[in-house]
TrEMBL record:
It comes from Marinithermus hydrothermalis (strain DSM 14884 / JCM 11576 / T1). It holds the Pfam family Virul_fac_BrkB. It is found in: Cell membrane. It is a multi-pass membrane protein. The chain crosses the membrane at residues 21-51, 94-120, 132-155, 167-191, 198-215, 235-259. PANTHER family: INNER MEMBRANE PROTEIN YHJD, UPF0761 MEMBRANE PROTEIN YIHY. InterPro entries: Virul_fac_BrkB. GO terms for cellular component: plasma membrane. This is Ribonuclease BN.
Length: 272
C-alpha cells in the first residue's frame, strides 16, 4: 500500500468534503448532548435508590440539604423535605423513565454513527440493520466504555503506589492509550456496513487515539472555562460540552476518512 503524499492528501480531502464530515459531526454532537439530560435523571434516580437503602446516608444528606436550604432560601423551609421526598419516592419512576429515554437516544446516536461510517466506507446502512446496530451497539460499546472508565480509575489509583520509572509510565500513559485505541478500532471495524480490513483499521485507530490524547490534554489549555463564562454566562457549560462533543465526533469521522483513504479506490466505491 504505497501512496505518495500529495495523492493521499487529495484523496483524503476529496472524501472529507464529499461525505460532509462536519455536518455528520454536528448532528452526532447534538445527539450526544441530548443524551446528557436523561443521563443526569438516571444518576439522580440511582442516588435516590441509594438514599432509600442507606438510612445513615439519608440522614446525613437530609441534614446537609436542610442547612443549605435555610442558608440559601430562608423563606422556603419545606423545600428540603419536598426534594428529599421526590428523590426517595420518585426514584423508580426517575430511573426507569430516564433509562428508557437514554436507551432511545443512544440507539438513534449509534444508528446515525453507523450510517455516517457506512457512507464514508461506500455503502449506506439499511434501515433494519441500522436499527439493529442502534439497539445493540449502546449495550456493547457502553459496557466497553464502562470498563475503560474503570480501567482508567484503577490505573490512576494504582499509579500512586507504583515506583517511579517504566512501570509507572506504562500504567499512566501506555495502557490508557491502548484502551482508547481499542475502542476506536472496534468502532471502525464493526459499525460500518462494509467493514474495512483489520490492518488499516488498527492503523487508523492508533493514529486517532494519539490525536484524541492530544485533544484531551490540550483542549483545557486552549479554551479556559473562565473566558467562556464571561462570554456566555450560565450557558458556558452547555457551550463547552457541545464544542467538546463536536470536536470528538469530528476527530472520530476524520479518522474514518483517513482509513477510507488508505483503501484502494476499486475496493469499496464511495457513494455521495
Amino acid at each position: 500500500m504505497r501512496l505518495r503524499v500529495p495523492r493521499f492528501v487529495k484523496r483524503f480531502l476529496r472524501i472529507y468534503t464529499r461525505v460532509h464530515v462536519p455536518f455528520f459531526a454536528a448532528a452526532l454532537a447534538y445527539y450526544a448532548l441530548f443524551s446528557l439530560l436523561p443521563l443526569l435523571f438516571f444518576l439522580v434516580g440511582l442516588f435516590g435508590f441509594a438514599l432509600r437503602r442507606s438510612p445513615a446516608l439519608l440522614a446525613d444528606f437530609e441534614a446537609q440539604l436542610v442547612a443549605f436550604t435555610r442558608a440559601a432560601l430562608p423563606a422556603s423551609a419545606d423545600l428540603a423535605q419536598e426534594v428529599l421526598g421526590l428523590l426517595t419516592q420518585g426514584a423508580p419512576s426517575f430511573t426507569l423513565g430516564a433509562l428508557a429515554l437514554l436507551a432511545w437516544l443512544a440507539s438513534h446516536f449509534f444508528a446515525a454513527l453507523s450510517y455516517a461510517l457506512s457512507v464514508i466506507f461506500g455503502g449506506r446502512a439499511s434501515g433494519v440493520r441500522g436499527r439493529l446496530v442502534g439497539l445493540f451497539a449502546p449495550l456493547a460499546l457502553g459496557m466497553g466504555l464502562l470498563l475503560l472508565i474503570l480501567l482508567n480509575l484503577g490505573l490512576g489509583l494504582a499509579q500512586r503506589f507504583l515506583p517511579q520509572g517504566a512501570l509507572q509510565a506504562v500504567a499512566g500513559g501506555v495502557l490508557p492509550y491502548a484502551s482508547t485505541a481499542g475502542a476506536f478500532f472496534l468502532i471502525y471495524r464493526f459499525l460500518p456496513r462494509r467493514p474495512p480490513p483489520t490492518g488499516p483499521a488498527l492503523l487508523a485507530a492508533l493514529g486517532v487515539a494519539l490525536a484524541w490524547e492530544g485533544l484531551r490534554r490540550g483542549l483545557p489549555l486552549l479554551i479556559p472555562r473562565s473566558q467562556y463564562e464571561v462570554w456566555y454566562g450560565p450557558l458556558a457549560g452547555l457551550v463547552l460540552a457541545l464544542f467538546g462533543f463536536y470536536l470528538a465526533m469530528l476527530l472520530l469521522l476524520a479518522g474514518a476518512v483517513l482509513l477510507r483513504s488508505l483503501l484502494p479506490d476499486q475496493a469499496q466505491p464511495l457513494e455521495g
